[in-house]
Amino acid sequence: MPPRRVIIDTDPGIDDAQAILFAFLCGQFQIDAVTCVFGNVPVDLAALNALRLIELADRPEVPVYLGAPEPLLRRRLRFAPMVHGEDGLGNVDWPRPAGRPAPGYAPVELARRALEAPGQIAVLTLGPLTNIALAMRLDPRFAGAVKEIIAMGGTALGPGNVSAVASANIMNDPEAAKVVYGAGVPLTMVGLDVTKRVRITPERRDRMKAAGTRIAEFVYRITGFYAGAYLKEGIAGFPVHDLVVMAYALRPDLFEVKRLPVDVETEGALTDGMTVVDFRPFTDRPANVTVCLNADADGILDWYERVITSAGERDSR
Ligand code: BDR
Ligand code: CA
């Protein structure tokens, strides 16, 4: 199979980091660019972390663009230092990257690149949908030019993770999510229904360390903080939400999905940020989203472990 041509939109983030490393190292993507957005961390830190990951993967030619520093309409920023560390990568003090963000603004680059190669580029989103909504508003042809959008965020049947009903990536910018869900673009929702089940156990994490490569060592170190955050919630084994997007992009056969009508709620003390999925058999609303409902978690994690532990030479540190 030829590599899948993609742009990754991200807010790294420890699970973003794992997803991005997997994407670079699995050899099955052509990554045209990495666009950054506020989310787990402020956008400039997200870009710094993306550059760190690109250098670790030894792909410095891939441009990293700064994107939206805040939601479309809201002023409230909710970063997640309690889950990802103050630096977004588990406070392990990994060396600063030598590279710098490329000149250009992420939404502009998304629109430009999609329109230059209509129907060829899939956008994989791992953070709030602000850059994508801005690209749609910037150039109405963008939605028709992207091949598809595969987005981590939302939940169909289970609870949220930042409110009773909302996931972080939607709650960080519900208006942007509403724009993207309503754009008529081929959209897949990789939500908490599946991502919460794709969990790295302490045993698997230890096995990755034992591989002794620089990449495996990095993953082991950054996930210490993340694993600790989940353990505080009584969860031994941490979900790698964003990785699941990469798995779906390459192996949709590992997933159970359904085409359903989905909209995003942008109001209400209890319902703000909710992805409202209409499961009724006789709904008059058109299905606009492919919703992931189940996944082969072990299949995804075994694959991830293989890629991470076999990448790069052994490192003596
Ligand atoms: C999502 O929110 C972010 O904190 C994670 O990186 C992931 O993209 C999980 O709800
Ligand atoms: Ca993320």
Largest sheet: 8 strands, mixed
The structure class reads alpha/beta
Strand order of the largest sheet: 3-2-1-4-5-6-12-9
Write down how many β-strands occur, each being a DSSP E stretch of 2 or more residues.
12
**Mean residue pLDDT:** 96
End-to-end C-alpha gap: 36 Å
SSE blueprint:
Layout: E1 4-10, H1 14-25, E2 29-36, H2 43-56, E3 64-65, H3 81-84, H4 106-116, E4 122-125, H5 130-138, H6 142-145, E5 148-152, H7 168-171, H8 174-181, E6 187-190, H9 192-195, E7 199-200, H10 202-210, H11 214-232, E8 238-239, H12 243-250, E9 255-260, E10 262-264, E11 275-277, E12 289-295, H13 297-310
Parallel strand pairs: 1-2, 1-4, 2-3, 4-5, 5-6, 6-12
Antiparallel strand pairs: 7-8, 9-12, 10-11
Bound molecules: beta-D-ribofuranose (BDR) and calcium ion (CA).
The site of calcium ion has 9 residues, from helix 1.
Provide structural commentary.
- With 317 residues, the chain is of the alpha/beta class.
- The chain has one domain: Ribonucleoside hydrolase-like (Inosine-uridine Nucleoside N-ribohydrolase, Chain A), CATH 3.90.245.
- Helix content is 38%, strand content 17%.
- The strands form three sheets. An eight-stranded mixed β-sheet has the order 3-2-1-4-5-6-12-9, with helices on both faces.
- Helix 4 (106-116) packs across helix 5 (130-138) and helix 10 (202-210) packs antiparallel against helix 11.
- The model has no long low-confidence stretch (mean pLDDT 96).
- It binds beta-D-ribofuranose (BDR) and calcium ion (CA).
